[in-house]
Amino acid sequence: MRTLVVTPTYNEAENVRLHVEAVLARPAAPDVLVVDDGSPDGTADIVRALAEEHPGRVELLERSGKLGLGTAYVAGFRWALAAGRWDVIVQMDVDGSHDPASIDDLLAAVEDADLVLGSRYVPGGAVANWPWSRRTVSWVGNLYARQVLHAPVRDLTGGFKAWRTDLLTRLDVDSFEANGYGYQIETTYRALQAGARVVEVPITFRDRERGESKMNTGIAVEAVSAVWRIRRTPAPSARPVNPDDAAGRR
Ligand SMILES: Nc1nc2c(ncn2[C@@H]2O[C@H](COP(=O)(O)OP(=O)(O)OP(=O)(O)O)[C@@H](O)[C@H]2O)c(=O)[nH]1
Ligand SMILES: [Mg+2]
Questions:
Q1: How far is the CA of 152 from the centre of ligand 1 (A)?
Q2: C-beta separation of 112 from 199 below 8 A
Q3: Number of H helices, E strands in the chain
Q4: pLDDT tens, position by position, for the chain (250 residues)?
C-alpha cells in the first residue's frame, strides 16, 4: 500500500528532522507531508532541506500563520487526495509522542480496516511520563466524549491514525469543522457514522521532550462543546449537497 504520513508543525525545528527521518526509514517506505503554519523558528527550512535530500519523498505545504491543527490536517488531506498517489494516509504528531515504529502496526491493521486508531486505552496501550493532571484530563475527556456520542472506541481524542484514502474521500474532508481535540473526536465519529470499519491498535504515548506544547485550556474547553455539535450534525452522506459547492471544492 502506498502510504503518506501527514504531520502538522508549528515551531518544531528541534523535532522535525528526527521525525521525518524516522518515518522515511520504516519498512513500508512511507512518503511524508509536513503542513507548516509559517513557524517563526524555521521549521519549514529544515523540511525544504529534507525534501532535497530525499527527492520525491518529502513534501511541504506552507500556510501563512498559525491556523490550528484541525485545519492543517484538512489542508494536508485535501492536498494528498488531489495528488491521488497514496492508498493510506497516516496522521501523527512530530514531537515524539507518537512513535514512528508504531506506523508498522497501524499499517498492518489497515489491511482489514478503513480507519485504524493508535490507542492508549486498549490492552497493551499506555501513556508514559505524563503528569497526573494531563492523564486525568485525557481520561475524563475520553469518557465524556464516548458517553455523549455512544461511540464504541476507547481512544477518541488520540491523534495517531491510519486512514484509507477512499474513506477520507467518502467523508469529504472539507466537512470537518472542529479544530483542536474536537477535531480528533469529530473525524473518528464521522467514520463510525459512515459505517467504516474502525479498529484500535495499542500504542505507547510519550510526552514531548523538546519544543513547546501548543495545547492549552482553551483547546480543551472548545472540545467540551464541540462534542455536542458533533452529535447534532448528521453524517456527510445524509446532508443535502449543493452541486455548486461540490463542484467548487473538487
Ligand atoms: N500546522 C500546525 N500545526 C500545529 C498547530 N498546533 C499544533 N500543531 C502541531 O500539532 C501536533 C500536536 O501539537 P502539540 O503541541 O504536540 O499538542 P499536544 O500533543 O496536544 O500537546 P503536548 O502533549 O503538550 O505536546 C504537533 O506536531 C504540533 O507541532 C497549528 O496551529 N498549526
Ligand atoms: Mg504533543
A1: 26
A2: yes
A3: 9, 9
A4: 999 999 999 999 999 999 999 999 999 999 999 999 999 999 999 999 999 999 999 999 999 999 999 999 999 999 999 999 999 999 999 999 999 999 999 999 999 999 999 999 999 999 998 899 889 989 999 999 999 999 999 999 999 999 999 999 999 999 998 887 799 999 999 999 999 999 999 999 998 888 888 777 777 788 888 999 999 987 766 555 454 444 434 3
Contact yes or no for 70/181 (Cβ under 8 A): no
Q: Is the CB–ligand 1 distance for residue 178 below 6 Å? A: no
Ligand index nearest the alpha carbon of residue 138: 1
The whole-model pTM stands at 0.93
Residue 237 CA to ligand 2 center (angstroms) comes to 32
Question: Using CA atoms, how far apart are residues 194 and 209, in angstroms rounded to an integer?
Answer: 37
Q: Tell me how far apart the alpha carbons of residues 15 and 4 are, in angstroms, rounded to a whole number.
A: 19
* 3 state DSSP class of 201: strand
Nearest CA to ligand 1 atom 13: 214
